[in-house]
Amino acid sequence: MDRALKARLESRFGDDLRGPVRQRHDQTEIRIGPGAVTQVLASLHDEPSFRFEFLADLAGVDTGEVMQVVYHLWSDTTPDWLRVIADGLSRDDPRVPSVTFLWKGAEWMEREAYDMFGITFEGNRDLRRIYMPPDYTSFPLRKDFFLPDDAARSPGAGVRPMERTHAPRNAPATATVRRSGA
Amino acid sequence: MTTTSHHDAPLGPGVSGSSDDPRVALDRDLGVFEPVPPYPPRTEREAEFYTLADGQLLINMGPQHPSTHGVLRVVLKLDGERVVDLDPVLGYLHRGVEKLCENADYHHVISQVDPLEYVSSLFNEWAPVMAFEQLLDVQVPRRAEYIRVLSGELNRIASHSLFLGWMALDLGGLTPILWSFIERDEIVELLASLTGQRMLFNYFRIGGVNGDLNHDFMSRLGDWMGRATEQIDAGMSLLNENEIFVRRMRDLGTIDTAQALRMCFSGPNLRATGVPFDVRRAHPYSVYPELDFDIPTRAEGDSLARYLLRMDEVRQSLRIIDQCLHQMPDGPIMAKVPRLLRPRPGRAYAAVEAPRGQYATYAISDGTHQPFRMRIHDPSFIHLQAVGPLMEGHLIADTMAIMASLDPIMGGVDK
């Protein structure tokens, strides 16, 4: 745990942070709103005291209540991984700015997050499905997408047809969506 | 009078189509992929790609092309024999591993992730296992860590020697792959005597490894270590001293440091541009801080540099194996871990230096026996998207050379 990094992040991004800077093992975690993504990541990338030039990972997360986009960054200024969570994207229309202006390599990772969660990355030039066929309508990693053999958590009727789960507003109120406490 | 072939003749009324009727069985469009998709472009980039200038044409390479290292379709936009642009079409091997992991319990995940990068399976297991250990706050015994490093480095050598063969094969040289398979087979048999499997080892466990070093493994390893350096050098001399190979590879698909970082490169492909970024040193894990090894880098950033760098890494791996054997402590190989794991809610990120780059897992626990979210970051996926930018202006035949030098494994790309 890098305490100095925590202090630097708090003093630099104090207003953008949603909640405290968390640290556990070798990871430092900050949460920001989707509106602050462009500015915070550009600062982390460019400013000489941070120099987070290596985007280690970009992941979409569906907590069952909101969508998140999670960035993992590496820099030689700290021994920690920095985890930036863009929190609070609505599940009906999740939108977040693209980071392809900093890392062109994020393009496919954003396409994957779009394909799996339906998150729209504004500014990504090539936001189309990457794994699933182009005429596919669902988003498989969402929490209201059940596997065919996952009848235990499906509503009373048993297995719901996969293709009908694509829009959360269509989901019956009885669906037991798994929610994260994390 | 028009003549119709019997293929086009309609089935008469009342004639049922049986499966051995050639008119029924023959579906000539099956497995044919039109390079131009049958729908209007959905994105700016797609519109740009599928708009042809004068004299340009689109052709498919794949999905069954032998040099795509798996099932990948690449749509090439050609001007004469020069590649103007290309668009990889993925998903032919997609099997939704992340979703399967979310519906498996923590121990089952290990067997789900094994077939991702199937030539370096131990690293596929290593990252999730490390992430789960963080979630559970499990301390892995030192002997287990040494066994992990030992078997992992063996796996790295196997993967790199296979790369050497593939690389040459994609350039049209048949001999190196036969030689490198000798090398790889010995290592694979070694690992089989340790883990019980040749490719999909299923060997690492949350809190340790599945079995201790045994006599069969140790005697084979001692035998192999005695001649490994010599054997690997012999294999490399086939290519390193081959003028055709070297000239072909030099200045092919060059990428500079800034662009490589922008493309999120890692592993040998990034180090070939001069950045000494290796997760084993940049963000140490396991017992790597106790081991003495160098991080080879090269400044050129071309295909030749990427090839030579991997060969340098093999020598470093041999050094690490040697040290592991000398420093291997006694003790248990498993921490005390319950059968049913219910980590407290939390998030963990763990990355390992796989043969292809940073292989990482981001796991979220919600307190149940299944991971709530299991993100797998695969370096092949990242490197494959650079083929387009690297290709511009090169010849069709160089597509395969550049792709091979980036060394993507489609099992990992498609997840």
Topology:
The complex is a heterodimer of chains A (182) and B (415).
Chain A: H1 3-13, E1 22-24, E2 27-32, H2 37-46, E3 54-62, E4 67-74, E5 81-89, E6 95-97, H3 106-117, E7 120-122
Parallel strand pairs in A: 2-5, 6-7
Antiparallel strand pairs in A: 1-2, 3-4, 4-5
Chain B: H1 22-25, H2 44-49, E1 56-61, E2 73-79, E3 82-89, H3 97-102, H4 106-113, H5 121-136, H6 142-170, H7 175-195, E4 204-205, E5 208-209, H8 215-240, H9 243-249, H10 257-262, H11 267-271, H12 279-282, H13 303-327, E6 346-354, E7 357-365, E8 371-377, H14 379-384, H15 387-391, H16 396-406, H17 410-414
Antiparallel strand pairs in B: 1-2, 2-3, 4-5, 6-7, 7-8
Helix pairs in contact in B: 4-5, 5-6, 6-7, 6-13, 6-16, 7-8, 8-13, 13-16
Tell me what the structure shows.
The complex is a heterodimer of chains A (182) and B (415). With 182 residues, chain A is α/β, with parallel strands linked by helices. Chain A folds into two domains: 3-122, NADH:ubiquinone oxidoreductase Nqo5 subunit (Beta Polymerase, domain 2); 142-172, no CATH class. Chain A contains three helices and seven strands. Chain A has helices at residues 3-13, 37-46, 106-117; strands at 22-24, 27-32, 54-62, 67-74, 81-89, 95-97, 120-122. In chain A, strands 1-2-5-4-3 form a five-stranded mixed beta sheet. In chain A, strands 6-7 form a two-stranded parallel sheet. In chain A, a hairpin with a 6-residue loop joins β4 (67-74) and β5. Chain A starts with a helix and ends in a 60-residue tail after the last strand. Residues 154-175 of chain A have low confidence and may be disordered. Chain B has 415 residues and is α+β, with helices and mostly antiparallel strands. Chain B has one domain (97-414): Cytochrome-c3 Hydrogenase, chain B (Orthogonal Bundle). Helix content of chain B is 46%, strand content 12%. Chain B has helices at 22-25, 44-49, 97-102, 106-113, 121-136, 142-170, 175-195, 215-240, 243-249, 257-262, 267-271, 279-282, 303-327, 379-384, 387-391, 396-406, 410-414; strands at residues 56-61, 73-79, 82-89, 204-205, 208-209, 346-354, 357-365, 371-377. In chain B, the strands form three sheets. Chain B has a three-stranded antiparallel beta sheet with strand order 1-2-3. In chain B, a hairpin with a 2-residue loop joins β4 and β5. In chain B, α5 (121-136) runs antiparallel to α6, α6 runs antiparallel to α13 and α8 (215-240) runs antiparallel to α13 (303-327). Chain B is globular and about 70 Å long. The model of chain B is unreliable at 1-17 (pLDDT under 50). At the A-B interface, β3, β4 and α3 of A face α2, α3, β6, β7 and β8 of B.
